[in-house]
């Protein structure tokens, strides 16, 4: 996250440490890599969906 976003949210270093510790306690250290991978894949799929919605449909796609 950028420093600007953290400043707007009002999160300091202590709050971030507490949040990270809570995540580790909830999900466990062994599940965190899997969780991060799933979040990355979801983000990529979401961006692809947005890009697909923004582009103009071709003539072939309109006929289908």
Q: Report the principal-axis shape.
A: elongated
Note the run of SSEs as H and E: HHHH
What is the count of distinct domains? 1
**Count of helices?**
4
The largest pleated sheet is described as: none
Quantity of strands, as a count: 0
Radius of gyration: 19 Å
What assembly state would you assign to the polypeptide chains in this entry?
A: single chain
Helix content bin: over 70%
Question: How much of the residues is beta strand, in percent?
Answer: under 5%
Give the helix/strand class.
Answer: mainly alpha
Give the low-confidence spans: none
Measured between the Cα atoms of the first and last residue, the distance is 42 Å
Overall pLDDT confidence: 80
Walk me through this protein's architecture.
With 64 residues, the chain is mostly helical. It has one domain. It has four helices and no strands. The longest helix is centred in the last third of the chain and has 23 residues, at 32-54.
Spell out the key features of this protein.
0% strand, mainly alpha, 64 residues, 4 helices
Summarize the structure.
Helix content is 78%, strand content 0%. The chain is an all-alpha fold and 64 residues long.
What are the SSEs and their pairings?
Layout: H1 3-9, H2 13-27, H3 32-54, H4 59-63
């Amino acid at each position: 996250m950028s420093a600007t976003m953290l400043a707007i949210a009002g999160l300091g270093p202590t709050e971030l440490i507490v949040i990270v510790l809570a995540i580790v306690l909830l999900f466990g250290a062994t599940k965190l890599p899997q969780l991060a991978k799933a979040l990355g894949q979801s983000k990529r799929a979401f961006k692809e969906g947005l890009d697909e919605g923004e582009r103009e449909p071709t003539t072939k796609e309109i006929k289908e």
